[in-house]
Amino acid sequence: TMLKDHKVYITDWTNARLVPLSEGDFSLADYVNYVQEFIRHVQQRYGNCHVMSVCQPTVPVLAAVSLMASRGEATPLSMVMMGGPIDASKSPTAVNNLAMNKSMAWFEHNVIYRVPSRFPGAGRRVYPGFLQHSGFVAMNPSNHLRSHYDYFKDLIKGDSSSAETHRKFYDEYNAVLDMDAHYYLDTIRTVFQDFNLVNGTWDVLGVDGKVEHVCPQDIKTTALLSVEGELDDISGSGQTAAVHEICSGVDKSMQQHIEVKGAGHYGIFAGRRWREMVYPQIKTFILKYQDKLTSATATETETALATTPAPAATLKASAQAAAKPATARAKPKVATRKK
Description:
The protein has helices at residues 28-46, 58-70, 94-101, 104-110, 129-139, 141-157, 160-173, 181-193, 196-199, 243-246, 271-301, and strands spanning 6-10, 13-14, 50-54, 78-82, 113-114, 125-127, 179-180, 203-205, 211-213, 223-229, 255-260, 312-317, 324-325, 329-330. It has 339 residues and is an alpha/beta fold.
């Protein structure tokens, strides 16, 4: 959907089961540091960028931009936060309650396993993808059963279009990586038990070995858009919108919140509601602040050429994380020039 209007870079992560133990652990702090590297990479190529995070990555993305702001670095033109647990204490869901009410020892003993010997990451401690997938299916088993029954009926009727829609959705839904245990347990503790981000108590170890304090209030020049689904049963109502409270340095005129009526968690970033209700508003928001960059650049260079605004360079942080990131890939759209 976004490719027709933007240059899109997607953070792509290697499955933890494929990463040898010699590569070391992967922590939540590592995720935060990598996001900063990704942002700088896109900024160097295009001058700046917009960053969009979906679900779990909203927290490390906000931390990354906060740290960049605290250091006086250029921050993205805009941030789009979608269905994420910025403040997981608000309207807790079944997912939140599990994370909040079980001890760290319980998670260590019940969901963490070592990668089998037949994989390159043999011996690495992970939260296996099959357990993650089983947990999500178990939240709404009747819905999944109905969906697969409808798929069977579509095949019988020869409705190839509906059947293909089903296959595409479940190809993505079922693609779950093994997650490094260090990262997973860090997230449980930091996001769902100690609420370090909203409590102002989160310190991140940087690649230079220095510990830095996460201060979202230091963000000043990055426009902020939050998106929530009315019926989201993973990130409850108000959890993502909480970003506006802690990013107090961003002028209110640069902040916007969208609640998508009738949408569950996946509906805000996939399917008809995403295409027809959510994306048009995100596109307008991003281009509003992209136009400011284009105007500023034209003024600085005093160029007399009239050009079509370059499609916004958008970094989209994926919901899955593992032990070692793969190279970010882009499929740029060419900006044409009018003479």
